[in-house]
Structure formats: structure tokens, C-alpha cells
Specification:
alpha/beta, FAD/NAD(P)-binding domain, Cholesterol Oxidase, domain 2, seven-stranded antiparallel β-sheet, 24 strands, globular, binds flavin-adenine dinucleotide
Length: 520
């Protein structure tokens, strides 16, 4: 036995796990990561993430299957492939979701995961700039800070939301999530605080932690019902390594894929690819959920957006003091709305305001100055699945999120556009908001707006649920995150969420790792 723990995937959850498990000097921990080291300067300079979205050297750059309800389009799904995983390329908004999300997990069979039971692990992870409280912690590895620089339009957006009848909140992660305000960000001293930065750097000198990059796990080694190790590829060579416990932290796409490649999953599906069935587990890859997002874009009359910022000047400002636009996460302000479709007081729409044009994930650069309101439905009903394309471990799986399959989801997306328009039309925006670019004034009816949504909606990057935790027949892991029916094999990442949380998913993925590590 070479290691006590083998962790597959150095993302949000994997780095947190490696950091925590290696705190015990008697535990020998191996962390395998398919991507490379996080040397790229744009990872660490916050605004640099806008450039990373294009890069496929640190990004799996997946595409979904054609979406029937989105004009047959394939949607682009970036995921981090580098130390820190998606926490190295994300927008850094620090959000946990709503108390009721976790209470519902617990009520559905995830015993031990109610909000009051997960809160201590959010707090443990956190180093909150505004100090400790019942909801926040200080001294943890994950820097959670106020933005060092905000664009004046972000304040205008918040004011306009209030004029549109929305309330304000000074903490999306405090007692009341509902309302508008600035996001806090996962940063430390103006630098991105990825999970690698938070958890791996302090652990770098530990002799009991081995981090292997460019190592892509291709199969879980099993002896009967016990996981005994991992087979992985490094360059052209295949290696195997053995350990006491195997922990998958490859994220919502790769963890279920690796289970299936190893003969753990829906038996009939595995057989169609010629994979020997080791353990029939029908829920693997099912229950795929994501936040679909729609952007409303308006021209800005004043040349104050981030569209034309001097990269040289802001680079210099950042270099000498880590301040200025380069320290911004761009999506500085936002809000949680209880729409007219909500059935209780829990927000069902989230907004991110971008003081710049944002089209096609920033891949399509538009001329001039503009502003964008992102809006997404927080708890869609549509459920998709992830299946194998083939038994080739290096081939991408097939991603079928089934966006907008339900009328409820379509109604919520319509509400997203209408609310965004309402905010842009307020007094506060009068000096700034020029003509609406998307959807465009001619689109007024539900039919026209739905056509626009079908043409332009994109992911806001929160796929979860494909190895769901629970006790029903479709559950993949039990509430201790052990793969049901097998020994010494766990899944610890965003894939175990039984249902999407009402917010961004990085902090919850880290919380999941903190909670798992604490139980060992
Ligand atoms: C562009 C973008 C913007 C986002 N913005 C935000 C935001 O502002 N706030 C927020 O809270 N969330 C945001 N998210 C979502 C959030 O970052 C993710 O939900 C979270 O990072 C998921 O964590 P994870 O540990 O499940 O997976 P990941 O962090 O994706 O980690 C998985 C890791 O496993 C590695 N891996 C996969 N397969 C293998 C294998 N076979 N062998 C070895 N290694 C493997 C991957 O390379 C990766 O490093 C964003 C995501 C993206 C992509």
C-alpha cells in the first residue's frame, strides 16, 4: 500500500481534501490532477479570468449535445483542468445558496446535511475579511473578501434594482440572502484564492502529500467490492497506484465518467460500450442539473465600462498594489430575487451585473461600450444525464442537460429577461443606458422573448448532481459520501449534490470536502 488516500482531481473539492487530510502527518496522501500547475498569471490576477475562458490548455472546454429547446445548439461548458480545477478559472463570486436548499437535501435522505449541519464547514473553510459572526469564520484557508475595485456602473445597477422595487442586502451569505448588493469574492490581498491557493500552498512542504499533475485517472482498480487503487495516464504511459481509500473529486462531469469507465454505473449502458459491469448503480450520470442563464445587453452612453479599459494601465496598477480594474471579478454586483412564480420566500432568480458587453461567454467581442445583466433560474425542474461516448477513457462523455424541458423553466427564464429590462429602465440608469442590444426592443411578446432565449441562453457553469447523495435507488453515494455497495471508494465534489443550490457552486463544493474530511 503506497498511500492511505488517493484523491482524483485537484479542483475546488480535491484541493480542500488534500489540504485537510494531509494535516495528519501519519496519513500519506496522493493527489492526481489531469491538468498542469497553476502557473498562468491570468489565473491569479482576478480580471484575467475573462481571458482564460478561451483557453483550452487549462480547460476541458466541453460541449453539450444539441439542445432540443435551444434551437438545437450545443452549449459551451468550460471546466478547469489545472491545479485548483474550476476554482482557478471561475468568476470568484462567493455564495453558499439558501438555507432551505440544504434542509431539502436532508429531508430527501441526505441525513446530516441540513443547513445548520453544513454551516460549520462553510465557516471552517472561511477567512472572512469582515470578521467572524454566527455565519462567518476567520482564519480558514479560503480568503473571502470585499472587492478592491468596483466600476461606478455596479453601484448604478444596485440603485436601479432598488428603484425597481427590490430590496438590498449587505451579505448574500448572512441571515437573508434575498436582495441586491456587491458580491464578496474568493480572493486574498487582491489575488484569486483558488482552492489550490487556499489549501495546497500551505501544504506544499508536507512530506506526506504528493501532488502529481498531468496525471489523468482512467480506471478505478477494484478487488471484489473494494477499491484498491487508480490506473492513470501520464503522457503516453499508463501507471497504477494503490491506496487504502480512493476518493473521486473530478467534478460533476468526470467523477461519474470515471465510475462508468470502471464498470460502476447503469449496467445496460455500460454493456453497450463493451465495459464489464462491476457494480450496477443506475444513478451514475443521471440527475444532471445546471443553471441556464440569459444575458440582457444594453449600450452604455458613457465610456466608463470595462469594454475599453487600458490593459497596460490596469496591469501596472495591479502590479503595484493589487488594485484597480484588474483586481475585479467583473461580475461585481448582483442580486437574489423572489419572483412572482416563487412558491415561498426563497429567491428563485439570481442576477450578475457586468459593466461590459458580454456575449457568448466573452468569446464574441462587440464594438463600443455596453452593460450586461445575467439572470438565471435557480432551481430548474429540467433534469439531464451524462453518458459515455465510448469506453475510451480519454474521450469526452456526452452531456445532455435537457435545458428548458419544463414549462416552469421557460416561464422563469422569461421572467429573468423581463426583470433585467425593468432594472435597465430605471431612473438610475437614465444617464447611462443606451439602446438595448439583446433581446432588442422589437422583442416584447412572450413568444418573441422565448425565441431570443432559445437562441442565446448559455450555462452559468454550475453542473451538479451526477453522483447524487441519498438513500433512494438512484443515489450513487450515501450521506457519508461512500459509493453505495462498494468499499473504500467515495465521491466528494459538486456531483454529489442531490439538487442544485440557489447560488454559485464553488463554496458548496469546498464545504462538501471540509465535511467529508472532518468525518474521517
Ligand atoms: C467559467 C466558470 C465560472 C464560474 N464562476 C463561479 C463563481 O463565480 N462562483 C462560484 O461559486 N462558482 C463558480 N463556478 C462554478 C464552480 O467553480 C464549480 O462548481 C466548482 O469549482 C466545482 O468544484 P469541483 O471540485 O466539483 O470540480 P472542479 O473544480 O471542476 O475540479 C475537478 C478537477 O478534477 C480534475 N480531473 C477531472 N477528471 C480527472 C481525471 N480523470 N484524472 C485526474 N484529474 C481529473 C479536473 O482537471 C479538475 O481540476 C464557475 C465555473 C466556471 C467553469
Amino acid at each position: 500500500m503506497e498511500f492511505d488516500f488517493i484523491i482524483v482531481g485537484a479542483g475546488s473539492a480535491g484541493c480542500a481534501l488534500a489540504g485537510r487530510l494531509s494535516e495528519n502527518p501519519n496519513s500519506r496522501v496522493l493527489l492526481l490532477e489531469a491538468g498542469g500547475r497553476d502557473w498562468h498569471p491570468f489565473i491569479h490576477m482576478p480580471a484575467g479570468f475573462a481571458k482564460l475562458i478561451h483557453s483550452d490548455s487549462i480547460n476541458w472546454a466541453y460541449e453539450t449535445e444539441p439542445q432540443a429547446e435551444l434551437d438545437g445548439r450545443r452549449l459551451y461548458w468550460p471546466r478547469g483542468k489545472v491545479l485548483g480545477g474550476s476554482s482557478s478559472i471561475n468568476a470568484m463570486c462567493y455564495c453558499r445558496g439558501h438555507r432551505k436548499d440544504y434542509d431539502e437535501w436532508a429531508a430527501a435522505g441526505a441525513t446530516g446535511w441540513s443547513f445548520d449541519e453544513v454551516l460549520p464547514y462553510f465557516v471552517k473553510a472561511e477567512d472572512q475579511e469582515n470578521g467572524a459572526s454566527a455565519y462567518h469564520g476567520t482564519g480558514g484557508p479560503l480568503g473571502v473578501q470585499n472587492l478592491r475595485h468596483t466600476n461606478p456602473l455596479s453601484a448604478v445597477f444596485i440603485e436601479a434594482a432598488q428603484q425597481a422595487g427590490q430590496t438590498l442586502t449587505d451579505d448574500f451569505n448572512g441571515p437573508r440572502q434575498r436582495g441586491f448588493g456587491y458580491y464578496q469574492v474568493t480572493q486574498r490581498d487582491g489575488r484569486r484564492c483558488s482552492s489550490a491557493f487556499a489549501y495546497l500552498r500551505p501544504a506544499a512542504k508536507r512530506a506526506n502529500l504528493t501532488v502529481q499533475t498531468h496525471a489523468q485517472a482512467t480506471r478505478i482498480l477494484l478487488d471484489g467490492s473494494r477499491a484498491t487503487g487508480i490506473e492513470y495516464r501520464r503522457g503516453r504511459r499508463s501507471h497504477s497506484v494503490h491506496g487504502g481509500q480512493v476518493i473521486l473529486a473530478g467534478g460533476a462531469i468526470n467523477s461519474p465518467q470515471l465510475l462508468m469507465l470502471s464498470g460502476i454505473g447503469p449496467a445496460a449502458e455500460l454493456r453497450t460500450h463493451g465495459i464489464d459491469v462491476h457494480h450496477d448503480l443506475p444513478g451514475v450520470g443521471k440527475n444532471l442539473q445546471d443553471h441556464l442563464d440569459i444575458c440582457t445587453l444594453a449600450h452604455c452612453r458613457e465610456p466608463i465600462t470595462y469594454d475599453k479599459v487600458s490593459e497596460f494601465a490596469s496591469g501596472l496598477r495591479y502590479l503595484f498594489g493589487r488594485k484597480g480594474p484588474a483586481s475585479s471579478n467583473i461580475a461585481e454586483a448582483g442580486g437574489f430575487v423572489v419572483s412572482r412564480h416563487a412558491t415561498d420566500d426563497r429567491p428563485d432568480i439570481q442576477m450578475h451585473f457586468v459593466p461590459a458587453f458580454l456575449d457568448d461567454h466573452g468569446r464574441n467581442i462587440l464594438p463600443g461600450h455596453g452593460m450586461t445583466i445575467h439572470a438565471c433560474a435557480l432551481r430548474p425542474q429540467s433534469r439531464g444525464e451524462l453518458t459515455l461516448q465510448s469506453s475510451d477513457a480519454l474521450a469526452a462523455p456526452l452531456l445532455q442537460p435537457n435545458y428548458l424541458e419544463y414549462e416552469y423553466d421557460r416561464r422563469l427564464m422569461l421572467e429573468c429577461v423581463r426583470l433585467a429590462r425593468e432594472i435597465f429602465s430605471q431612473q438610475a440608469f437614465r444617464p447611462y443606458a443606451g439602446a438595448e442590444l439583446y433581446p432588442g426592443v422589437e422583442a416584447q411578446s412572450d413568444e418573441a422573448l422565448l425565441r431570443f432565449i432559445r437562441r442565446r441562453a448559455e450555462t452559468i457553469y454550475h453542473p451538479v448532481g451526477t453522483c447524487k447523495m441519498g438513500v433512494d435507488p438512484m443515489a450513487v453515494v450515501d450521506p457519508q459520501l461512500n459509493v453505495r455497495g462498494l468499499d473504500a471508494l467515495s465521491v466528494v465534489d459538486a456531483s454529489i449534490m442531490p439538487a442544485l443550490v440557489s447560488g454559485n457552486t464553488n463554496a458548496p463544493a469546498i464545504m462538501i470536502a471540509e465535511k467529508f474530511a472532518a468525518q474521517l
